[in-house]
Amino acid sequence: MASTIASASSAALTFDLVARCSTTRARASLLTLPHGPVPLPIFMPVATQASLKGLTPEQLEETGCRLCLNNTYHLGLKPGQEILAAVGGAHKLQGWNHNLLTDSGGFQMVSLLTLANITEEGVKFLSPHDGKPMLLTPEHSISLQNTIGSDIMMQLDDVLVTTSPDHKRMREAMERSVRWLDRCIAAHKNPDTQNLFCIIQGGLDTEMRKECCREMVARDTPGIAIGGLSGGEAKADFCRVVRTCTELLPELKPRYVMGIGYPEDLVVSVALGADMFDCVWPTRTARFGSAITKHGVIKIKSYEYANDFGPIEEGCGCACCKKGEGGLGITRAFVHHNVGKETVAAHLLTIHNVWYQLNLMREARDAIIADEYPAFIRRFFANIYSDKVDYPKWAVDALREVGVDLLSDTNI
Amino acid sequence: MSTPEPDGRAMFKILKAIANDGVGARLGSLTLPKRHPIDTPNFVGLTARGAIPHLTPDNIGKKSELGGVYIALEDFMETTRKKTTPPLLEIKSETIDPLHSFTATPSHMFTVLGARRHPAINSPLGNAQDSISIFTSTGFQKLTNEAYRKYVAKIRPDIAIPLADMTYSQATNPVDSKRRTNINSSKRQLRMVERTEDWLAEFFEAAEDGSEQDTPAVFAPVLPLSYPTQWEYFNQLDQDFVTRLSGLAVYGVDVLPDLSNHGPLIDLPRLSLDYTATPQEILRQISLGADLFTVSFLNSISDAGIALSFTFPPPSDLAPGIRPLGINMWSPEHEVAVKPLVEGCKCYACTKHHRAFLHHLLNAKEMLGWTLLQVHNYQVISDFFAGIRASLNAEPSTFEEDYDDFMRVYDSELPTGTGTRPRARGYNFKSQGGDAKINNPGWEKYGTDSDPALAGEMAGLAVTGAAAEGKETPLVPEVDAAELDKQGFAEISK
């Protein structure tokens, strides 16, 4: 029913804009990648080491997932580039015939390794085993991602926590990320089968972000990521940066906000004009015994669920919760019974949480196509908070900027 | 359609018996009301807390041929200050039997309920006159015969095994705990028989007054003792109880040949709860007349990272040397092997994935590795039993020769895995002072002031909690700089 408004193609990707929200900046689109079409907006679960935390690729497929993440850093360590090359890439390694996105590996490097410091050449760190100084360059990252064969690869960027007060260093990181993008593009061997996305940096400085947007957009990558967020900055700052960037980005390219995953963040970010998100939180919180529901996150691990024989979430359509044919009849009591004791509990909550996140974006997409996204946002918040007084201020403010006043009773 | 009586001879049909005295290997079919019938010899899955380790119910239903599961009541009996009644007893389920409903067991499969896990952790407290000692995740507890009977009536398993006065192995290591402990004290032996006899009588007495619908099929316990010690108990079974028995739960199979003295018991299906450390032991038990098995090595062999690779009958090519029973998937030889775990295996792991992936998953401590190994190993055992049935069914039966071939061709022990294993500690094990650590610690402090767990948290990655259990993602390279350089991960800087 929804026809394409406009399209743009590059060598390994087609972007069809399907609908625009008439109030907010939300948009619905269809991204066609080398391993098939992906409706946007989308949440991408993180299968760090080529496996989504105990789920078989078939179970992941059943949640509706057609694009998930692998982490370059982890695959580079295990199984390593040589083995990836011998096996024929990460799709073949994990038996996943849908799309994959890989990060550059730089983020983990900077966050985890002792003495990681960044120079123009690349990220310098000490090998944890023998203390030898080592260097990860944009060329290494791209070479590894080419071997992995991901449908979307990310440039190596100079990551700095957005909350860093060092303005000079922030500018250096932003400018260096632009230079590294050029090196990544030059090193990229498979532009016809793999898409390389740039990453907008610039911390919380709106002007610097704008400058970075202009530089990155000029390099015409098939998709664009907004990076450096989800590092502990205030939510209001986060929204301001996303809004600033989406304003400047070309309409016919996918926009990926990295590391975002709480349902509220997704719903607001979509209203601000973002299309793609990833986060480990939904799958991690599943392993720690929490379920995401439309009424908020519940800790199934807590004793009050020991005698709760209802589904994880009433009305949910995931394999665990759905009723009738193909439904598993999983109760909260059974999950509670096994949380932290048998891996099966983690698997079940992972199936549920991934389904929840994907379904949230499916419903958002349907609402955008029906041009009812503002009403969708209202329903979403009303389901979580029984009283408007409890609505998070950052969300209310951010949505007001794009024409939705959550606190007013009148507009729909 | 009327529900068949819980009578073993209606439920269980012997299709073919090899020996004419009714003991010895035989082919049968077990049909429980509401469930799919299964052919025997066969096996049921062993659950831990109502779940087959690493397999979600959709994977059990779609990716295994399992016809039933064994569930231990002790896995549901823990109490805490906040939770004084076991939730399993609170469940109200009208359409689905409560035990099925609570454990989300697929509806075509039957449930076998026993009081204790198999194999069980030995209790230092021992059993009492009217109760046994059970092990829960919050410690040892008493379970009275009266309570057990009530629980059975309430949660409605398809098959219930009344209490037996058993003493289990004190070993805690996964290999030794699979072997039987012999009870040598004749006083203890007599008491075991007496109590088991009394408890069974009480079990039936109490059941008499209630006119409960859908009573489970009862498999009477047979103790791991010599025939002379328990023949009186057998007499009682065949004279007083046989009409109410649907089968026997055999804790020691060596007594099976003596069943020839108890005609009425011969036609009952026999579930072996004896220790089975190898497939050879299963074959021996089949030749003694066991019909149904709980393959106690199966879950732990998957945890050990072994892909079972035996078939029955063994392959006929005459490759010299002893064949191993399984393949150690931890071995680096599988690093780039894009081939099935076992050539020709029809399981999901072998048809959709390959050795290289499985090796990677184990190496990366990803939970999917154990899931795929479970899928594969359960299929190997299903095929093993199918092979045994075909061999028994042949005219004339080839079982004896095939059994001999199997003994000759295969190694007598299962391989041990070389990597770390999940579920090596936790609620399901009782440690003893001086036990060595089973796995190496997953985390050690690196450098002087850096905490990788903390750094990982800051990076938004999950590192706390069950790192050693394989639930979390390791973050720090295990190899040295030269290796990283060679791998193209990064270069050694000049």
From TrEMBL, chain A:
- Which cofactors is this protein said to need? Zn(2+)
**Entry binding sites for substrate:** D103, S104, G105, G106, F107, D157, Q201, G228
Where is the major localization of this protein?
cytoplasm
Q: What class of enzyme is it?
A: transferase
Would you kindly state one Gene Ontology biological process term found in this protein's UniProt entry? tRNA modification
Stored InterPro entries: TGT, TGT-like_sf, tRNA_ribo_trans-like
- Which residues does the record give as Zn(2+) binding sites? C316, C318, C321, H352
Q: What is its EC number?
A: 2.4.2.64
The tRNA-guanine(15) transglycosylase-like domain is annotated at 24-384
Give GO terms: molecular function aspect only: metal ion binding; tRNA-guanosine(34) queuine transglycosylase activity
| Catalytic residues in the record | D103, D278
Which domain of life does this protein belong to? Eukaryota
Q: Which UniProt key words apply to this protein? A: Cytoplasm, Glycosyltransferase, Metal-binding, Transferase, tRNA processing, Zinc
Q: Which reaction does it catalyse?
A: guanosine(34) in tRNA + queuine = queuosine(34) in tRNA + guanine
Give me the ranges of the annotated region RNA binding: 259-265, 283-287
Example GO CC term: the record gives: cytosol
Question: What this chain does, per the record?
Answer: Catalytic subunit of the queuine tRNA-ribosyltransferase (TGT) that catalyzes the base-exchange of a guanine (G) residue with queuine (Q) at position 34 (anticodon wobble position) in tRNAs with GU(N) anticodons (tRNA-Asp, -Asn, -His and -Tyr), resulting in the hypermodified nucleoside queuosine (7-(((4,5-cis-dihydroxy-2-cyclopenten-1-yl)amino)methyl)-7-deazaguanosine). Catalysis occurs through a double-displacement mechanism. The nucleophile active site attacks the C1' of nucleotide 34 to detach the guanine base from the RNA, forming a covalent enzyme-RNA intermediate.
Similarity comment: family membership: Belongs to the queuine tRNA-ribosyltransferase family.
- The molecule here is called Queuine tRNA-ribosyltransferase catalytic subunit 1
Q: State the organism of origin.
A: Xylaria arbuscula
From TrEMBL, chain B:
Q: Which UniProt keywords apply?
A: Cytoplasm, Metal-binding, tRNA processing, Zinc
Cofactor note as given: Binds 1 zinc ion per subunit.
Q: Name one GO biological process term.
A: tRNA modification
Q: Which residues form the tRNA-guanine(15) transglycosylase-like domain?
A: 24-410
GO molecular function annotations of the record: metal ion binding; tRNA-guanosine(34) queuine transglycosylase activity
Q: Give the highest taxon in the source lineage.
A: Eukaryota
Binding-site residues, Zn(2+): C345, C347, C350, H376
This protein's major location comes to cytoplasm
Q: Where in the cell is it found?
A: Cytoplasm
Gene Ontology CC terms: cytoplasm
User: Which cofactors are reported in the record for this sequence?
Assistant: Zn(2+)
Protein purpose: Non-catalytic subunit of the queuine tRNA-ribosyltransferase (TGT) that catalyzes the base-exchange of a guanine (G) residue with queuine (Q) at position 34 (anticodon wobble position) in tRNAs with GU(N) anticodons (tRNA-Asp, -Asn, -His and -Tyr), resulting in the hypermodified nucleoside queuosine (7-(((4,5-cis-dihydroxy-2-cyclopenten-1-yl)amino)methyl)-7-deazaguanosine).
Q: Describe the family membership recorded for this protein in Swiss-Prot or TrEMBL.
A: Belongs to the queuine tRNA-ribosyltransferase family. QTRT2 subfamily.
Subunit structure, as described in the record: Heterodimer of a catalytic subunit and an accessory subunit.
Protein's name according to its UniProt entry: Queuine tRNA-ribosyltransferase accessory subunit 2
Species of provenance = Xylaria arbuscula
